[in-house]
Amino acid sequence: MRLDVFTLVPAAFEWARERRPLAAVLGGELELRVFNYRDSTPLTAGQVDDDPYGGGPGMVLRVDVVVAALEAVYGGIPEHRVIALSPQGRQLDQELVEELSLEPALSVLSARFEGFDQRILDHLCTDVVSIGPYVLSGGEIPALAVVDAVARRLPGALTEGSGEVESFSAALDGGLEYPHYTRPADFRGWTVPEILLSGDHARIDAWRREHVRVLP
Ligand code: SAH
User: What pLDDT digit, counting tens, does each position of 38-69 carry?
Assistant: First the structure.
């Protein structure tokens, strides 16, 4: 997959490249490119945003700036899915993550300040996605959430099998994963369920199935 992020803070994506899951799939299943709107803006002095029509505080990311960024990279408006990150969008969930991870190419647009000129959402984007019902200061953390969640669904991102049985997965009927424990078996009297120490895999599997929490 080729995943392109448009941002005003490209540095926000650097650390993630060195860590799993990104480190495992970059150069293979995933090509991650990060573009700064300022590098292709048609305005002077790196301007990308402007005062809102009608007045009020804050700055709004301009539609001509986003078109210029898309044209610089794709030569026009891309055919593939273009996702704008906004607290007003459809909430990201595992189902949407699975769907996105099957796309051959994705563009993810983030904004800062007051957000996007509405025409960006109406005319340039196929999806508007939120990472939750709260307002962050910029789309970088939401973009990292999308990039990470999608990357870990790509082949080779995780150690064998570890991505199959997880919270929200089909293997758990969309429920929350059973609890995990590791050594020590007794820490200050906080003990581990006996069954998990028994070596009896049939009983362990049954215990785990019982402890999957089904969401309402
Ligand atoms: N004025 C907007 C909020 C803008 S926050 C409103 O009231 O709806 C600035 C930018 O941060 C947004 O344009 C978006 O790109 C990003 N952002 C903030 N919170 C987000 C969230 N919960 N999910 C996705 N993106 C978010």
Answer: 999 999 999 999 999 999 999 999 999 999 99
Find out whether 139 and 85 touch, Cβ atoms under 8 Å.
yes
Before 87, cis peptide (omega within 30)? no
Would you state the torsion angle of the CA atoms of residues 120, 121, 124, 128, taken in this order, to the nearest 10 degrees?
Answer: 140
Residue list, ligand 1 pocket, CB within 6 Å? 85-88, 110-112, 114-116, 130-132, 134-136, 138-139, 142
Atom of ligand 1 nearest to the CA of 92: 23
Nearest Cα to 131, choosing from 114, 113, 147, 107? Answer: 147
φ, ψ (nearest 5 deg) of residue 198: -75, -20
Q: Is the Cα torsion angle 16, 148, 153, 182 positive or negative in sign?
A: positive
